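Residues determine shape. Next comes a sample protein:
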Amino acid sequence: MRYDVVVAGLGAMGSAATYQLARAGVSVLGLDRFEPPHTLGSTHGDTRITRVAVGEGPEYVPLVQRSHELWRELEEESGVEILSQCGGLVIGPPRGAFAMHGSASFLEQTVAVAEAHGVPHERLGTTDLADRYPQFALAGDEQGCFEPGAGYLRPEAAVEAQLRLARARGATLALGERVVGYDDHGTHVTVRTSIRTVDASTLVVTAGPWVSELLPELAPRVRILRQVLFWYDVRDPASYAGLRESPVYIWCPGADPGETIYGFPMLDGPSGGAKVAREQYVVETTPDEVERTVSHDEVEEMYEQHVRHRLPALSGRCVKAVVCLYTVTPDSRFLIDRLPSSPNVVVASPCSGHGFKHSAAIGESLAQLATRGESTIDLSRFALAT
């Protein structure tokens, strides 16, 4: 059978692309080796931060703005809550180089992007932060930027809703079917799976940490990094009532980016704890060899070094801890482009640990690339040749 488009990988980007293709009436086959939403890649963990004042750079702003519009459309069509705008804080040292996701000065870049794009925001000094957000025990004289329109997304809910609606609109989904390779014939592409071959006009590869397996030419440009997410018990919910109304946050207390943590308000009552995590860019792995069990030592180290003295409302009892994977480029940028060697293949991976907030718009852009040859949103900064 021949399809207009085959999508390989149905996580954040792939589910969005499949949904948008089906929405446009395109004949689409979505393939995934597992049954998304699942916990084996990068699209899980209950929540993901979203913010329009993106400290990674102004080229991301159109993607997140469009994504917010698409999340609301998806919510209306699916009846599922996906986007919660509880506000967001970026906290960093004054005058300091708070490096994150390829930005040398993340806090200042956040403010600059907000100002350039008219994103409502508020600069907060140390006293303002301490008075307004006593749940954060500041390490020194940190400064902040508050964005009221920021918040969090529900990744598993988004993936499930998009795949369900894609199927309802005519998409064919083959779960538990692994893509093993492809052949680009110039006029079309043949996709080989673990059980069959299918033809399509375009193959969209959104395979996350498995991208190098399908596209070996990208292997020198990506690293797979194990990350751990923690949910710690709320010590005294009664004395910390504001935690439920807290903003999401990204917080670096000093010059060392390794001290950066990010987190979320208490979402599901005290029994669910509050999620907090950090990022590491040293130890590499693969999606097949990664250690998926979080050890007691990891739980204790995270609490003692990054939580105890900074988030005093959280106890050392870990309610839950899970592993996820980042697929990261050297400059932490996205790769979204047609393969120069295979013009009928479009790739949207990796997204370097900060992609989910943009995934709805990236899915729409991938659908446009696959069917029209170009995207409404300028993706030139994410081209393979840059």
The chain is about 25% helix and 30% strand. The CA atoms of residues 184 and 342 lie 6 Å apart. The mean pLDDT is 94.
